[in-house]
Each structure stands twice: as structure tokens, then as C-alpha cells.
Amino acid sequence: MTDLTGADAETDGLGADPSAAHHRTLTATAGGNSDAVPPPGCPAHGTAVRLSGLEYQQTPSELYRSLRREHGPIAPVLLDGDIPAWLVLGYPEVSYVTQHDELFARDSRRWNQWENIPPDWPLMPYVGYQPSVLFAEGAEHQRRAGVITQALEAIDQFELGHDCRVIADRLIDGFSGSGVAELMNSYAHQVPMRAAVQMCGMPAGAADTEELVTDLRISLDAAEGDDPVAAYGRVGERIAQLVADKRRNPGPDVTSRMLLHPAGLTDVEIVQDLISVIAAAQQPTANWICNTLRLLLTDNRFAVNVSGGRVSVGQALNEVLWLDTPTQNFIGRWAVRDTQLGGRLIRAGDCLVLGLAAANTDPQIWPEAHVGAENSAHLSFSNGEHRCPYPAPLLADVIARTAVETLLERMPDVVLDAEPSELTWRPSIWMRGLTALPVRFTPAAQ
């Protein structure tokens, strides 16, 4: 695996170790006492809020409102281990950050906190630099993102919808006779994961495809007793083998199109970017599917025509992107130089967490707290050059819509098998997804 510590910062053109310089600045400002309270404007200031706890995990919207009242559109926060950062809450501010890469860049090696980050830091998978499209900047990002965009543009959306219907039907066949099911793990996670690996050229139903699906689930959403690091290693090995196979025998799939693209990406670059594509297609889309099913099954506005109702399904999908967006927060951007944002002084190397969910419910854009489901100007796919590459959001919509509609068509009398208040959200400040979605329905004849 790639070194995630940022130890190569001195040789990558970003200058000498920024974390040491920042530490010296804080020490000097505090009068030489490293234990002194940091100055106002630094995200380590005493008013910073820890992004953790049950309040955040279960009712984040309430926390966003309180942060706005106390701090405005930019709030000082503490990540795991009390590492300081800024949470960008405002819709205009998130839009500004994502549209100005010259001020807020993606290469995490700029971070001024690396000397305080332990090797086993829980958020290392999110921030540890890797040579993938996620951390590339400028012309290199445009080159890498351009390859992905053109590879995805060639996907026939009608064919993808058909494939997703086949996947969904097979999964439903596995539990339709029982009359009960837990949809989060047995359905919502499975549909986009299987669709993503098929788009990349893995044969449906093959043993190694099933093993890849299992390892992807573990690496992205590990359960107790799982080893996500080992699973991620196996994912990398299998994707590397897929790239080697497609190099020898290309086909009508995303991997082959990336290999044949005139940009001439190396096999290593393609492996990294394929993993990013599959991961981005799976977990957010899975939570989008499940959050939409939850809305349809618990909100009386959708109860009358939920069965096969395309208009209602479309409204529910879009409303979820506004109010329960799968990616709540994204880490992040790193300030290229000292700058002002939302009345705050952002120091060079500071980390900014993009509060996508908070921005989507910003009272500046919804002054009466009414979100219009017909409006698609949400930031759930981010914004700017580093947003989800076109047409990824359209493909995600095909996958999610097909999954929801197929389930409702196959099980028109499906109902929640629990009280809505009993449903719990996963303990994450990053993703918005249920731990489980139990349902019951009339068993299908065997």
C-alpha cells in the first residue's frame, strides 16, 4: 500500500515539511509555550467542537444548526484525536471552496498537522495521500479525470438499467419467499457494488467476482472481526489482475476503455483510479438507495402511490440528496496559502471539511426550511473540478432508481418491520446510512 504519512512532502514540489513550520508558528505565537491556548482564528481554539458522539451520528442537522448559530458558516472543529480542522457549513462557502482550487487544493501533503497524526489514525484512509485521481491537481487531475469521464460516457444507460434489474431480481429471489428481509446489507449494498464491478469488466457470478464484492464490502464498511486493511490489499491485487487481463484482452468495459485511452495512463494509475471509481459508486449509492427506501416506507406523503410510482420514487431520490445525503461531510481541502473565508482566517495548510449536508440545508438558500424536491442544485455530488465526474451522477441515479423501483414492483405490499423511531444510523460523521432496514411483505410462492 502507498505510504499514507505524507513523508514525501519535501520532494513533491510542495516545499519543506509544512507541519513542522506550522508547529513552530503556533509555539512562537503562544509565547514559546506549546501548551498555551492557540490564538483566535486557529481551528484548535478552545471553542472547537468535536465531530463525534451520538448527537452528531443520529441527529446531525441539529448540530449543524447549533454550529451555525455559534460560529457562522465556518466552524472550528476537532477530528479524531482532537486534530483541528474547519467545517464549512454554508452553501455559498462550500461552493466557493470547491470552485477555487488555487486556494483550497486536494493534495493532502500540504496539511500542517502531519506531525500530530499517528500512523493508525482512523481517518487515514480519507486523508492519506495516494497517487490517484482523488488527490491529483491541475493538469494531472484533468488528465486523469478526463480518462474516467470518457470511459463512463460510453456506458449505455439503458443497458446499465437492464443489468441492474437483473442484479436486483436475483437478490430479491434470495429472500422473497421468506416474507421478511433486512434490506441494507442484503440488497441496498449489493446492487451498486455488483453493478460497479460489472461495469469495470468483472464477469457476473464468477467466484473471483464474488470474492471482490466481499472484500470491497469489508474494506469500505467493515463489521466487527473484519480486517479492512487486508481486504483492501486483496481488492488492489484483484483490480491489478483485472487491469493486466484487460491489457491482454480488452472488452466493452470501463477498464478497457481506460487502458485504450490516448492519455496513456499506466497500469498503476488505472488500478488506483478504478478503486476510486468503484468505491465512489458503491457506498454512497447504497446509502442513497436505503435512505430513499426508508423515506418511502416512513413518510405518508409517499404512501398512496409508492407501489411502482415513478414520480414518487424520483421525488424521494432527490429529496434524500437534499435532506439525508449519503455523503454528509467530505475531507477535504487544504489551504494553499493564508486566506479569508466566511469571516475566518484560514492558515496555509489548514484542513477544511466540506459540510455537504449542512450546505444543502443552509437557511440562506431555504429561508423557510422548505426544501424543494424538484430542485437539483444540491451539493451532494460536490462541486467544481473535483466533483463527481460526469456522467457518474447520472449512472448512480440509474442504479439507485432501478434498485428502488424493482423492489417496489416485486414487493408492492412491503412495509417497515419496526417502528420508524427504532431505526438507527451508522456511527459515522462522514456517511449517512442506516445500520439496518428490516421489512416484511407477503412471501412469494416457491
UniProtKB/TrEMBL annotation:
Coiled coil: none annotated. Gene3D superfamilies: Cytochrome P450. InterPro entries: Cyt_P450_B (IPR002397), Cyt_P450_sf (IPR036396). It comes from the Bacteria. Belongs to the cytochrome P450 family. This is Cytochrome P450. It comes from Streptomyces hazeniae.
